Here is the input.
Amino acid sequence: MKGILRSNDRDTELPLVPPGSEHIEDSFGFAMLQLRQVLNTALIGKADVVELVLTCLLARGHLLFDDLPGLGKTTLAKAVARAVGGTLARVQCTPDLLPGDITGFNVFNQKTRDFEFREGPVFSDVLLADEINRATPRTQSALFEAMAERQVTIDNVSYPLCQSFFVIATQNPVESHGTFPLPEAQLDRFAIKLRIGYPDRQSELSMLQESIGRFAGREEVSRPVLAPQQLTQLQEHVTRIAVSPKVQEYLVELAAATRGHREVTLGLSPRGLLTWQRVAQACAYLRGRRFVTPDDIQRVAAPVLEVRLAGDYDATPRIVQEILSSVAVPTFHGTP
Amino acid sequence: MTIGLHDSRPIGAACPTLSVSNTRPVGIAPSLLLQSTEKGTLVLCTLSAMTLFCSRLAASPSLVQTSLVTAVMVLVPWIVLICLHCRIGPWRRLTHGVPALIGIWALAPFLLEYLLLRHVGDGEPLEITLLCSLQAAALMLAAYSYLRTCQYTACLLAGFLILFSIVIGTAPIVFVFAGAFGVMMLWWLMARYWERLQVVHVASHVDRCLPVRWSILGAISVSGLILASAIGNSGNSLYDLPGFMPTSGGSQRDDPFARSGIGDGDALVGAKDDAASFGPVESELYLESKMPSLYDVANEAYGEPRISKEPTERRIALAAENSLEKEGRIATSQRGGREFSTIRKPANRKRGPLADRNSPAMLYVLGTTPAHLAIEHHDTFDGANWCQTFLSGKRSPIRNRVIGKESWIEFQEPTAIHLSTQVHAIKIVNLQTTRVPSPHQLSAIHIEKLDRPEFFAWTEDDAIYMPDRPGIPQLTVLRTRSHKIAREQLIARCVPQKLPAPCINQDVLSNGTSHAAYLNTSTLSPLMADRAAEWTRHAAPGWSQVECIVNHLRTRFVLSPDVVPPTDCPDVVAHFVKEGRGPDYLFATTAAMMLRSLGYPTRLVTGFYARPDRYDRKSRQTSVLKEDVHVWVEVLVANETWVAIEPTPGYEAPPMVLTWSEWGNRLVANGVAWTGNHWLGTVVSVLLCMLIWRTRWRWCDTCLTHCFWLMGSGGPLRRIRWTLCLLEWRCRMARTPRPAEKTPRSWYTSLAGNMPREISIALDSYLELVDRVLYDPDIGTVANHRHGIQTDRVCATVTRHLRVRQLREVRR
Here is the structure.
């Protein structure tokens, strides 16, 4: 099958906790530190991008990279897959890609005289879908169904995907010929949209330095930091991060502000609002807090809203800033 | 609502270090954490000191001296408190020998009294000195409030001083301070209660859903306000507060120290129809006595023969029901000031015979003062004496006019220079004359039930009098209406007239125009006429010249009633001008003659001057005594209106209606004159204001810091919130207010970029606490008492280092 790669690192046992540690939270903190370190090693000079990727991972959301080729998207996806001890599948989307190429298909086995289901790349832990906007809408919808439902239905049979199924999709913002732009309703399936951007000068120099002596195809394989079931536990823990009623009201007001902005044609949906809260919880967890603050919400506002707000593409960062500036953060007013 | 203690443990079970101990011996240094009750104790003592100061003010020999002494007495304990708790200055020495320090400070008023008596000559009674000593002791004890014994003793002494001040003081401000003391004492008691809970029970947290302290204080304040409003508006305060407030119910003896009460008013003659009397009592009751009266009643009832009033005078007939029969002698009051109420309780106690209450006043005036009350006018000056020799010509007819529901006897209609009306009430007491004391520009008079114009007439010198009677009956109340003059119209209409030829033969002038008499300058020397021209050479002809003469006399001459010209003085005006001082009639004479030489008809007026400083706040009226006889001048304007001018310094001119520009110019001129007379005080005040302005942020910051620190007592959560509130206020004062869309953490972190490391760490810790307080829904279950002290330390560090000045520097 064209453009599909898969790696198998599923069953590695990991030392979860450092010696002497008793609390599961401490172990998670240590694992997150290692995970962060691995990803920063893979993508040099983009600590903020790595942080958002981790946030998306912990929030159990899917990631959309909207960036130029050659900036490290695939490298990052591979590093994530390796770090969480999962399998990586890569799909290079082309216009002739069929839905079955994504989800899998039944093949008739002449020996057994029965149909056998051949799993598609969606059955991996991490799926990298390159240039997703080049696939046809039919193929795109097959992937989005898998992202939303975490299962695929083929010939009336549902096949569940793994719990830590994580999609990293990419698209090139420059090329528009022969592409099928993702519809807004489908974009809502993604948790955040990121741009990696070019690294700074020092990071590029470091990257060049490290590439000396490295042979393509024989990259050093790092040990996984988390097992998939551990990642699931972590994601479950993140959902229990406290969100106070005041902060929830703040979120709702921000959502209302997106719907009322004059340059936004389609504002934030309730699903997007839930996603925003979840991503903010992950952000709070990564900062070592048990509760979400408006700072967390503001920090993840741009990546969360950019993937959802319909309107002028170039003006989205400004619109997001205007929305954030138009809503007061919750504190106490007057005297405490 | 849950108010209680969670996880409370008895004291002794691994409790943390306490900042205050109930058994702390003397010599132990105070904690860095200044408890709110410690500051509150000193505030209570300061309030009691201010109350005592206000009570002493009236009897104090020198206001400046008393103020300075009180200021020092209050400031030094505050400085001691700050030194002890902020560990600055000689704070270590201050912790040793506390009883000796307090004792020395308590004896300081005696030492000061001795020094003042010896060197200055002023002293105060021993009782006041003893009170000052107690006050000093209370203040210094409050400075050492970290010792519980000192704190309680200070509160006790402060309470005693407040009670004593209320008893001896009469000024309303005393009660304001006493009220503030009461509120503050309530707060102190509640704060002490909560502190004791924190000390005795080691609580992990306390849940309070209601701000108990503020709720109680607010409820008491609101109830007090409602009660005060209800009582104040009811008008029957004396009868609404029996048993709560002392009232002087009135007795045989008139007590000037009585706070309120109607005295023996209910036994005096009172108005029957109009009970809402002001100071002078209007009475239309007919008295069966020999006193002169404007009223008469035909009474054919069976009884004792009527007491006839002699001599027979013109009177107004009243209905028989207005006749009041009284057994026994009726007392009269020449004094005003008691309000009468028709709602009276019957007097249950036996009263003795009432004595008359006499007054030395000639008359009482109710209304705006100063007021010039004219009695006589004079037109001819023979060089030594003024007299009236000429007829003034046509006078306006006297007629009755109904204004509102009252009958007014009208004498003068308004002219073009009249703008507005003012009303006075004059009660005749000891003045025996038929002439009506007339305010300037009198237009109408009202006497109750009197609607007959023939009761009044014009005199030959243009005054109003009551003919056919020996005098206006005593205790008659006259209400007058008079016009105010628009200065703008005066300027437009006042023009000098052509001077008549100097005339010697008075018989010729008696047949001439009346105005010629008022321009007669035959007795004025040419030198004085030249002097008048010289004084007015820069003024345009018209009212400006008149004002020029008046201002010159008021500013360059001195009022000296004892400096009179010799009896054989040929030219009193020249003598007065040469001496530069003299009595008021020489001022008036000089002004009149000089204005005549410039072509302005003038006449001399004698009468009474109702002085503003004789205004009695209790009775709300001004008494006019014999000494208030005064002389002034009137100028004829537009050949129809006599306008009074006041050339004598120390007496205010009759008020005029000014335009806004005139008012502004006068204000500026008065301001410049006042500044010139008080230049030293002005310079010092300006410098002080500039200094305060330059350091205003520091003062505001310090006041806010102390207020908010007091507010923030009561737990770590409260402390954190109030510290954040303080930081928000400081940012506003530094003009870097936190944007509404930024969290405190992001904002204050951005402001603290260049601060030293330890401050940044403290700020970061504080902002973490702020995040928890604001956004952690489980903050209540996680609170730890150990964090209380740490929280206070962190908040104190942030409060100390993130001041307005630092924020303004960051903004730059």
About this structure: Residues 66 and 167 of chain A are 14 Å apart (CA to CA). Chain A has a mean pLDDT of 81. The longest strand of chain A covers residues 104-109.
